[in-house]
Write a structure and sequence with these properties.
alpha+beta; about 160 residues; 4 strands; binds flavin mononucleotide; four-stranded antiparallel beta sheet; globular
């Protein structure tokens, strides 16, 4: 599953079942987090909302059936400095759950310059810190053969 996951940026114009979206969110919430603090909140957007979002943050591709913005809620933080790592783990779980369902998604960055407009449009409270946005849906194309990525030159056993 991990080796065949690849970013998908083109989707069929078909909605997703709510049950699938719920299970994908559940996968995110099962990520590890520092001190089990689970500092995350999830903003879920459907087709039309996704288009509004990506018009404000154009590095995200159009045409997704849904999107999930994973955010830190600092009020849920117990150990300072780890929440973005926790949310990144949640995002990877979300991507793997999407792939496990035969759907396709892509992790997209929230560009700082675009963030104020996104926060305002979706009434995100000012203390909330968006970490990443996953756009997903039913893939338009069949996945190709995945490129192998195991790279021994990155390994250091025992001592660097
Ligand atoms: C933190 C982060 C930010 C990313 N931002 C974007 C983005 O803004 N737009 C996009 O199309 N892909 C984005 N990606 C996806 C990467 O381009 C993609 O993961 C990378 O090219 C490797 O391809 P793969 O996901 O198919 O393995 C992002 C990935 C990460 C982890």
């Amino acid at each position: 599953l991990i080796k065949t996951r690849r970013s998908v940026r083109k989707w069929k114009k078909e909605p997703l079942a709510d049950k699938d979206i719920t299970e994908i969110l559940e996968a995110g919430m099962n990520a590890p987090s520092a001190g089990d603090q689970r500092p995350w909140e999830f903003l879920v957007l459907k087709e039309k909302e996704h288009e509004i979002y990506r018009s404000l943050n154009p590095n995200c591709p159009p045409g997704a059936a849904a999107g999930i913005m994973v955010c830190v809620n600092p009020k849920r933080e117990k150990i300072e400095g780890y929440s973005e790592q926790d949310c990144s783990a949640a995002i990877e779980n979300i991507l793997l759950a999407i792939h496990a369902k035969g759907l396709g998604g892509v992790w997209t960055a929230l560009f700082p310059a675009n963030l104020p407009r996104v926060m305002e449009k979706f009434s995100i409270p000012p203390e909330i810190v968006p970490v990443g946005y996953v756009a997903f849906g039913i893939p338009l194309d069949k996945a190709g053969k995945p490129d192998p990525r195991y790279d021994e030159s990155r390994l250091h056993f025992g001592v660097w």
